[in-house]
């Protein structure tokens, strides 16, 4: 029996990835010059499949970076003003804050609890603010920010660029890019690829036209992007595979993917409901509960569950940081099939 990885990233690989990997190998993709027509076609295809899948409008460009932490840093470097405003509920929101600080910004933090919904009317963001940062899906604790809140914030502050980290939810949320200026994700989460590629989607209106220094300044990236190239020799393998996976996802249909994600989340919720003496949702407010990273409090501690599941060749995430031994984290990504989820639940029944 194959090992299932429900870890929140790196996670299970997308079905058929082995075939794609070998197809690229046989076709010589991994030896292509990144200035060749063949590479440009591959990059163009990957961007077109992503645009279709995520409904990226023509106003926005997708750039290939090394990771999402790099995306955070590039966003900061592309931001002229000093003050940044961060809505945070956990560790990845904090990473965005420390990235701002490391890039000489003055971050202001608006902390919310995992069950708190953002009261947009009550937000008071200074007009000096150069950037608003939101972690849409907080991988450390399984809470998420509603897309309605993000839109409401942009409507209230139309002149401030908004950056949204949707690393561990993409492609699930139906993000309307009209309301966001930067959105980014990494491929080792919900795209089921090996790590090593981050995608940053940017509203071209926030990119200065004069070339700033640095090979990965957004201006340098944008200059090459129009001809389907990258400034440096990129991760051709990952760009190629991402195109293949996004194409498969488009064939299946994003609506079906979303419906299956909901269904698998419900399977877990029903299981939790039947075992409340042993497991509970870390996020009790259903409106804030992530569908793609499910975090559960384990009454007797999570160590033994994680260990026993491994004997069934099922790998799940421990809790994050201080919650390491008290919580488990279960990724519910498109590469996890309904039958994978049934196998996890059956195994959970036995180990609890
Ligand atoms: C994983 C993750 C990141 C970091 O992604 P890298 O690819 O490791 O840079 C950032 N934000 C969130 C919410 C994540 O889950």
Order of helices and strands: EHHEHEHEEEEHEEEHHHEEHEEH
Please give the number of β-strands: 14
Low-confidence stretches: none
Head-to-tail CA distance between termini: 21 Å
Give the percentage of residues in beta strands.
15-25%
Largest pleated sheet? 7 strands, mixed
Radius of gyration, CA atoms, in whole angstroms: 20 Å
Present as ligands are: pyridoxal-5'-phosphate
The residue-averaged pLDDT reads 97
Judged by helices, strands and strand pairing, the structural class is: alpha/beta
Note down, in words, how this protein is organized:
It is globular and about 60 Å long. The mean pLDDT is 97. The strands form 3 sheets. A 7-stranded mixed β-sheet has the order 2-10-9-8-5-3-4, covered by helices on one side. A 5-stranded mixed β-sheet has the order 1-13-14-12-11. The protein has 10 helices and 14 strands. It is α/β, with parallel strands linked by helices and 352 residues long.
Could you outline the blueprint of secondary structure elements for this entry?
Layout: E1 4-6, H1 17-26, H2 37-54, E2 60-65, H3 68-77, E3 83-88, H4 91-102, E4 106-111, E5 131-135, E6 137-138, E7 143-144, H5 147-156, E8 162-165, E9 182-186, E10 198-203, H6 218-225, H7 236-252, H8 254-274, E11 279-281, E12 293-298, H9 303-311, E13 314-318, E14 327-331, H10 338-351
Parallel strand pairs: 1-13, 3-4, 3-5, 5-8, 8-9
Antiparallel strand pairs: 2-10, 6-7, 9-10, 11-12, 12-14, 13-14
Helix pairs in contact: 1-7, 2-7, 3-4, 8-10
Bound molecules: pyridoxal-5'-phosphate (PLP).
Residues 9, 67-69, 92, 135, 137, 139, 165, 167-168, 186, 198 line the site of pyridoxal-5'-phosphate (PLP).
């Amino acid at each position: 029996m194959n090992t299932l990885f429900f870890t929140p990233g790196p996670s299970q690989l997308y079905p058929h990835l082995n075939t794609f990997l070998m197809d690229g190998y046989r076709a010589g993709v991994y030896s292509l010059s990144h200035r060749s027509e063949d590479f440009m076609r591959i990059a163009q295809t990957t961007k077109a499949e992503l645009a279709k899948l995520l409904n990226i409008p023509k106003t926005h460009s997708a750039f290939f970076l090394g990771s999402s932490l790099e995306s955070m840093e590039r966003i900061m470097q592309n931001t002229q003003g000093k003050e940044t405003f961060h809505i945070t509920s956990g560790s990845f929101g904090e990473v965005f804050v420390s990235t701002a600080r490391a890039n000489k910004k003055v971050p202001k933090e608006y902390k919310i609890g995992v069950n708190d919904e953002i009261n947009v009317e009550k937000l008071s963001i200074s007009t000096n603010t150069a950037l608003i940062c939101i972690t849409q899906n907080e991988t450390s604790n399984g809470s998420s920010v509603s897309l309605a809140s993000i839109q409401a914030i942009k409507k209230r502050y139309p002149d401030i660029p908004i950056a949204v980290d949707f690393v561990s939810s993409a492609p699930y949320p139906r993000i309307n890019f009209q309301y966001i200026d930067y959105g980014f994700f990494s491929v080792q989460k919900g795209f089921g690829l090996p790590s090593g590629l981050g995608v940053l989607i940017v509203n071209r209106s926030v990119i200065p036209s004069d070339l700033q220094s640095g090979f990965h300044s957004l201006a340098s990236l944008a200059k090459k992007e129009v001809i389907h190239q990258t400034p440096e020799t990129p991760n051709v393998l990952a760009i190629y595979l991402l195109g293949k996976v996004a194409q498969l996802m488009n064939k299946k249909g994003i609506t079906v993917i979303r419906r299956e994600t909901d269904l698998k989340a419900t399977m877990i919720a029903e299981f939790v409901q039947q075992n409340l003496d042993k497991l509970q949702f870390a996020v009790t407010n259903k409106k804030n509960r992530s569908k793609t990273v499910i975090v559960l409090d384990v009454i007797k501690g999570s160590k033994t569950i994680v260990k026993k599941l491994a004997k069934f060749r099922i790998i799940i995430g421990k809790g994050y940081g201080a919650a390491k031994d008290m919580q488990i984290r279960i990724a519910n990504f498109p590469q996890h099939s309904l039958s994978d989820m049934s196998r996890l639940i059956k195994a959970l029944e036995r180990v609890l």
